[in-house]
Amino acid sequence: MNRIYIALVSHGHSQFVMNNKELLRIAEHENVTLVVRDNISEQVLKDFCTQNRIDYVCSETPLGFGENNNKVAEYCRTIGMESSDWFITMNPDVIMNTTNFSQLASFLASANGDFYTINLFKDAEYTISEDSARYYPNWGNLVNMLLRKPVTQSYPKDELKDGSLIEWASGAFLIFRARLFEQLDGFDRSYFMYYEDVDICYRAEHKVGTKLGFIASVKAVHEGAYKNRNPMSKHFWWYLRSLFRFLLRK
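Given the sequence above, the corresponding C-alpha cells read:
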C-alpha cells in the first residue's frame, strides 16, 4: 500500500495546527507521515510536534508557499518517500475529519491517476462551498478585477463527480503522486504566495499530460483569510504580480 505524506507549512499558524484535533488523529494513521515545516521558527510549534511525534522541519529564512512545500518533498524523499507514494500539500487552516480522510485514503489506494484535489467548504456543515475548483485565467479576465469580481471562473461543483477533470484547484489541498511532483520539479520558485497552484496544475496538464482530478465525495473545511482581496494590502500586490507572471508565461 502506498504511503501518504502530508506537507503542512506554517507561516505563524501554530495555533491552527495545535488546535486541529483532527490533524492529530490523521497523523496517527499507520500509513501516514505528517511533516510540519515552520517558516518562522516558533518554539511552541516545535515543542508541540515533538510531543505528538510529528516530523518537524524549520526554514532557515522565510520562504514562499511553493518553495516551502518543495523543501518538504525533498525531506520526505530522505525519509523514504517512493515514486508511487502520495504527496499532499495541506494548508494549516484546512480541517478534515477522520471519516473523510479514510475515504480519501481508500480512493487513493485504487486510484489510476496521479493528481487530485478534494471538495472544500467554508463551514463545518458543508453547506457553503468554496470556489476552489476553477478555470485558468486569461487576459480577458482582468476586466473582472475592475468590476470587483473573482478573476477566474469557478466550476459548478455540484455537477462534478469523483474523478471529474478540472483545470486547477487551490493549493490548500493538492494531492500528487510523488513521481509527478518530482517530474514537475515541484512548485515554481519564482512565484511567491499566489498562483503557484495555478502554475503547477497548468504545467502538469500541458507539459506532462496529467490533468487534475476532483474527488467530490471527500470534504474538508478551509478557513481561508483571503487577504488578497484588499487592494491596499501587500497580499493584493503579490497576487497581482503572480497573476501577470502566469499570463505572460502561459
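Residues 22 and 97 are 5 Å apart (CA to CA). Try to locate this feature in the C-alpha cell string yourself.
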